[in-house]
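Board notes (copied after class):
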Amino acid sequence: MKAAIYNEVGSVEVLKYEDVPEPEISPDEVLVRVKASSLNRLDLRLRSGKSPRPVNLPHVGGVDIAGDIEKVGRNVKGVKQGTRVVVSPTVKTISHKTGGADLALNKVIGVNYWGGFAELVKVPAENLVEIPEGLSYDEASTLPVCYVTAWYGLFDRGGLKPSETVLVHAAGSGTGSAAVQVAKLAGAYVIATAGSDEKLAKARKLGADETINYSTCEFADEVKRITDKRGVDLIFDQIGGSAWEGNISSLAPKGRLLLVGVVGGGAASANIGPIIMRDISVLGVTVFNAELSTLATVAGLAVKGELKPVIDRAMPLSEAQAAQKLLEDRAQFGKVVLNP
């Protein structure tokens, strides 16, 4: 089968479109013929060697996967060949002590195992969610990381309530565009940031009430102006270190900061006084801790049109290098999808 594979970490040039052996499934796994696999910045960090989760080489990435069930392991029940499915990437390990998932031992398809940048991928049967009728493979492939992160972060971690004010950073990204929609669906007042006016115009079409171009102003100053100095209740932040100080000053008393990504660096010098004095909560968000039911929830909302997967473009798997370069250059709005 064909796959986008790399034998060493480095720039996009290490990514090759080559023949690789087809995966062999265990009795508890299914084989999925990939129809669409969307990119995440995680794929870039893994390929470049900058991720805290190093991969075993050679590696085939691709965490977001949608396709058809090609083959079913002999122990698998209730799963039929030909069913359209979207894959939850988290392979959970059950703790012998608690009987629940051991988060420290969770593994990820596309990280610890070969992923969806290939014609075929093997996955545990319990990781499958059927794609609702009316939702395309491309659309379904945008959901597992970005929309589940937005849902899990804003509700499960952030406790978002209707009428609260939410600041969503990097609204032009796949996860940012998802968070704008999820927050608006919840009844929040949404302020979105991005690095260009073009991306901000698109964010407003997704439901953002106010927008801030962080390349032309200090976002914290604009947040204070928009909120009449009160600040926001919740921040959905994929930037990390470089936004830390502005984030803390942008929060209202009892505000919550969701740390989702580290595009702007993973370290910051913190003045903890304002955090204590204003009862601020700082919360990490790891999508790989979300429940499988969250993927089913966002898929159901997407087919109803209440959430709209944002796809910048779909490209052949053979153009994986160019697709990853788009994300590196932040030249996309929403998701880039690869089709084998």
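Comment from the instructor: The domain at 2-142+310-339 is CATH 3.90.180.10 (Quinone Oxidoreductase; Chain A, domain 1). Residues 143-157 form the longest helix (15 residues).
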